[in-house]
Design brief:
1 helix, mainly beta, 13% helix, six-stranded antiparallel β-sheet
């Protein structure tokens, strides 16, 4: 089963801002977490299997431009690589249609009882994003 591409709109809260008036770097991980919830909910819609437990093993993000309070914020999420026990999740954050942040997260299958890594579903395949286009640019500042 090919894993889906997901698109999540994020509401920037006033409390997300730092003293410079843009989203603090400490909130980006929360945006990625919310986007992964959407991603795994979309998997549940196309699979009869319960999503396996997993843990975050690695996060690498690059901030390319600031995100401000009144920006329309969209996070695109997909799986770029599937392994036996791990998967690589990609995120792109767009602010008013412009790429603002990229993130690569490695998730590892996790057995809650043994507290050890476990295999992910063998029929899961990386997402084909060849037809995915960035969200439309908005006129908001």
């Amino acid at each position: 089963m090919q894993l889906p591409h997901s698109r999540t709109e994020i509401q920037v809260r006033f409390s997300d801002l730092d003293i410079l008036g843009h989203v603090s770097n400490s909130y980006y991980a929360q945006y990625f977490d919310l986007a992964r919830v959407t991603f795994f909910r979309n998997i549940s819609k196309i699979s009869e299997r319960v999503n396996p437990s997993h843990v975050v093993a690695s996060v690498k993000m690059d901030m390319l431009r600031e995100i401000c309070f009144d920006n329309t914020v969209i996070v695109d999420t997909w799986c770029s690589k599937m392994g036996t026990k791990s998967m690589t999740i990609e995120h792109h954050i767009y602010a008013n249609g412009e790429l603002a942040t990229t993130c690569q997260t490695i998730l590892v299958g996790f057995d809650r009882e043994t507290r050890k890594s476990t295999a992910l579903p063998s029929d899961w395949e990386a997402t084909d994003i060849s037809d995915v286009r960035p969200p439309e640019t908005t006129s908001e500042s």
